[in-house]
Amino acid sequence: MEKQHKKLPEEGIKGLRQNWKTDSISGFLVFLLALPLSLGIAKASGFDPAMGVLTAMIGGLFVSFFNVSPLTIKGPAAGLITVCAAAIGDLEKLGLAGHNPVSMVCAAIVVMAIIQVVFGFMKLGALSDFFPHSAVHGMLAAIGIIIIAKQIPVLLGDEPSVYKGESPLQMLADIPRFIRESHPHLAVVGIISLLVMFIFPRLNIKVFRNIPAPVLVLVIAIPLSIYWHFKHDYSLVRIGSFWQNIHVSADFAAIGTFTFWKYVFMFLFVNSLESLLTVKAVDNMDPYKRESSYSGDLIGLGAGNALSGLLGGLPMISEVVRSGSNVGFGARTKWSNFFHGLFLLIAMLMLIPVIELIPNAALAAMLIFAGFRLAAPKEFISTYRIGREQLAIFLITILVTLLQDLLLGIASGILVKFIFHLYNGASVSSLFKARYEIRRNDKTTYIHVNGSAVFSNLIGYKKVFTGLPPGEHVVVNFYSAHLVDHSFLHFVHHFGHTYDARGGQFRVTGLETHKALSEHPLATRKKR
Q: With 80 as the cut, is the pLDDT of residue 126 above it?
């Protein structure tokens, strides 16, 4: 174990000197991926496209200097498109004359960011464990469906005004109309771009392995936009005077309204939860098995969101696709995120005329692919395999989110999860209190779990597990537990794997006396 610690990459200036080659190459490749996605996310959110690039620049050049996860990439995310667009629409309905709804959304982002920083200092990053996996995945799948629905007409070249105000379900039903009213040349660019996004990564051609699919989309789409003489209207990205547009933009005129605070907390919830889930996922990918500070990441993220919102940018998160690509490109430290921001800065200084040749249909293809990743059929299948009750929670969360909004969607998923737990015999009191006994014998620690071990009391158990001294033999006994749900077992499985990798011995026993609700190894189990 000591040998492994010596091989950890240095941080700070020493880390820059040691790893600048690998981190700059990874940062450049992530920049190629981030540039078109940032433009598309901002446009789909109702912001000027360049504000997406500004957000990603802040995420790289500013947030990298905080105690954030070493390999995550900060920037705007597809998962927040629906919240941003809905916030702009609802704040516009307030009818505050002379106040730009986008600027009022920026103010909500600033307030959200302040709360995020406070949560970080209060070490509340662990609150993400309260939300059951099936409900969270349902929320993300619903976001994916909404993104797909809203980008299909853009992919086909229709004017955005045609579908403004329609619900996602209405837009899916209107696909035949969008096809009839499509603009052929723009639709060709969009469909070709979409095929590239889906097919190119599956080809596994060695020469192109490190080229992100969005880059190939741009290589094809930009020449087509020149050949077909696309005009600078809704068909192309418009940057304009980027540097002149950067100023204090947040407008707090709506701060006394319910709508304003509704979106503050909606931003806070989705932004923080999706970021923390990404940090967990990237920690698993990290070849050095470093464990990020969730609270430190929240503080850095909050600081970045405050600056972004103040200057007219979007909310940023630790984005999973770019972060995963960063790991795959060989990044070693936070400097890769910094370099990705630096290359975006250079692009805004030198490449705006080229960027303004990108068709919006090509960006829509990238966003549809991002939405598909969130709502892919495999997500439904894998959820069903965990258990039919998990699929029910997943589907109800999706349906309520599509019909209402994200907060009601996740709340309905949690409510259904509680109903299933009560149906399976859990008492109300056991749902929220961690009940356990700890016994120690030489270098063996026995944790006896009593009552229910479920998502809603996982935080109490997590303090016990994370407080275990390294290198010991740990036995978790579920014999006396009446109910153990999937979210709890998922955490125990992940923790046990990490504990073993650091020189300990982690073992689970007592589950043989329980009945699994499906054949999945981490399915919910109740006492026979």
A: no
**Residue 185's closest CA among 393, 20, 362, 55?**
362
DSSP sequence for 71-93: T-EEE--GGGHHHHHHHHHHHHT
Check: CATH 3.30.750.24 for 429-527?
A: yes
Q: Where are the beta strands (DSSP E) in 176-254?
A: none
Distance of CA 240 to the CA centre of its chain: 29
Domain limits, the chain: 18-371, 376-423, 429-527
Nearest alpha-carbon partner for 279 in 392, 387, 129, 423? 129
Question: Residue 119 has what pLDDT?
Answer: 94
The 10 Å Cβ neighbour count of residue 430 is 21
Identify whether the C-beta of residue 502 lies closer than 8 Å to the C-beta of residue 1: yes
- The whole-number pLDDT of residue 88 equals 95
pLDDT at 263 > cutoff 70: yes
Three-class SS of residue 317?
A: strand
**Helix H segments across 311-359?**
320-328, 335-350, 352-355
3-state secondary structure of 318: strand
Q: Binning pLDDT at 50, 70 and 90, where does residue 274 land?
A: confident
Res. 217 pLDDT band, cuts 50 70 90: very high
pLDDT digits (tens, 9 = 90+) for 452-464: 999 999 988 988 9
Q: What phi, psi does 450 have (nearest 5°)?
A: -120, 160
State whether residue 137 is helix, strand or coil.
Answer: helix
| DSSP three-state, residue 11 | coil
DSSP state of 159: -
Q: Chain centroid to CA 120: how far? A: 18
Integer Cα distance of 271 and 263 in angstroms: 11
Nearest to 151 by CA among 81, 91, 87: 81
Strand, coil or helix: 511: helix
Largest CA distance in the chain: 77
What H or E segment, with its residue span, contains residue 6? helix 2-6
Instruction: Give the residue from 463, 462, 468 showing the smallest Cα distance to 499.
Output: 468
Mean pLDDT confidence for 376-405: 92
Q: Give the mean model confidence (pLDDT) for residues 106-110.
A: 98
